[in-house]
Specification:
mainly alpha; 2 domains; 60% helix
């Protein structure tokens, strides 16, 4: 029993650090299996220049690769072409405003598979006031290439926001309270995510013991939906409503977690 409890506790702490974990995740890309992709076949063999080669491995280790979203889905081009010229027709460097992955176009490109996130982002003051000038933040500001990176810590979000909201002599006056709100909101999302992962592990343990957890599964799913909404709405950068939903998801998840602890380990004093 002690080993099981240790695993659950470790799962909680690890889950809390992984805001982008599967639990409470937003909409699926839903692309499905694709025919052989010549972009992938060609780029996996390119070793120079180093930066281009690394881009392939960024993709290879990303969630997009896991879900069969290949180069052409975001960059355009013809994934079935047999020559490089044909394959790259309509593909532009990211710095080119005609590129589908240029900052000004990322909301549309990424939003094709992430509509809830796009809806929140395009309603944000950042997008409304800055996007036409080609200024960020854009999707890649926080998620880098192929979204294989996600801002997960208060320090990271503080550093990002402070580029504009914390720089002395910058375009905007420093706003320590805004930075604090961003950090606390991210911590709230991470905390809620962690307790939902903990509850998920307890569901698995309960099912191994053939316990009745139908109601717990239903309540946990409701908390997951609430957290998913909070994660989507985070992209509008309005922190108070996001924090409120994340805290509610945490409270609901904690209720489920505590109830499951009593079922799975009835003799354990919490």
């Amino acid at each position: 029993m002690g080993g099981r409890i240790l695993i659950l506790i470790l799962g909680f702490w690890i889950g809390g650090a992984l805001l982008g974990a599967r639990s409470g995740e937003g909409s699926s890309l839903g692309i499905g299996p694709q025919p052989p992709n010549q972009c992938v076949n060609c780029h996996q063999g390119i070793t120079t220049p180093l930066e281009l080669s690394q881009r392939y491995y960024d993709w290879h280790l990303s969630v997009h690769k896991e879900r069969d979203v290949a180069c052409d889905v975001c960059h355009g081009g013809d994934s079935q072409a047999r020559t490089a010229q044909e394959a790259h027709r309509g593909v532009f460097p990211p710095s080119n405003e005609r590129s589908r992955v240029h900052g000004k176009n990322q909301a549309e490109t990424c939003g094709a598979c992430h509509p809830e996130v796009r809806a929140a982002y395009v309603a944000s003051a950042h997008h409304v006031k800055l996007s036409s000038a080609g200024l960020g933040p854009f999707c890649s500001t926080c998620h880098l290439n192929m979204a294989n990176s996600t801002v997960r810590s208060a320090a990271d979000i503080g550093a990002l926001c402070s580029r504009c909201h914390g720089a002395e002599g910058g375009l905007l006056p420093p706003s320590p309270q805004l930075l604090k709100s961003a950090q606390e909101t991210l911590l709230s999302l991470s905390r809620a995510n962690g307790v939902l992962i903990w509850a998920s592990r307890l569901i698995e343990a309960a099912q191994e013991k053939r316990l009745d957890v139908a109601g717990d599964v239903q309540d946990l799913e409701a908390a997951r939906r609430l957290l998913a909404e909070a994660k989507w709405e985070w992209h509008a950068f309005r922190f108070e409503p996001v924090r409120a939903k994340a805290d509610r998801a945490f409270e609901q998840g904690t209720t489920v977690k505590d109830r499951l602890m009593r079922k799975v380990y009835p003799g354990l004093r919490q």
